Amino acid sequence: NNQIYTPRWVVKKMVDLLEENNPGCFDDPAATFADLYMKSGLYITEIVKRLYRSEKIKAAFPDDKMRIRHILREQVFGMAPTRIIYLIATNYILGFDPELKCETKNFVQADAADAAKRGTLKRLVDESFGK
Length: 131
Hints:
- This protein has 7 helices and 3 strands; from the N terminus they run αβαααβαβαα.
- The protein has helices spanning 8-21, 42-53, 55-60, 64-75, 83-94, 112-118, 121-129; strands spanning 33-35, 76-80, 107-109.
- It has a 3-stranded parallel sheet with strand order 1-2-3.
- It is globular, with a radius of gyration of 15 Å.
């Protein structure tokens, strides 16, 4: 199977490279980010941290609760291939605050790898996230 854990240092490097290749991407409150094959939730969590700490996003959303809600509702999206992986990932991403446990509309259980093989990934993303 392809359920390989990505170490934290690799995730941080991936997000560093994303920012290096897209300067300022974590400063734009309209930017969106997706992990279409979530496993642990580390990648989305690292992106949420970068967005949350951005001085420009802090200026746009000075209230901490409003800022995290904006990020979770408007900026990050994820798909997990199985129910157990979905629960692991969403618990990791949202587990730090009981009030945020309901912020799951942007995280779905769906097998993006299977959809990609069938050529239906775009349709799956559109259906899952209402775009």
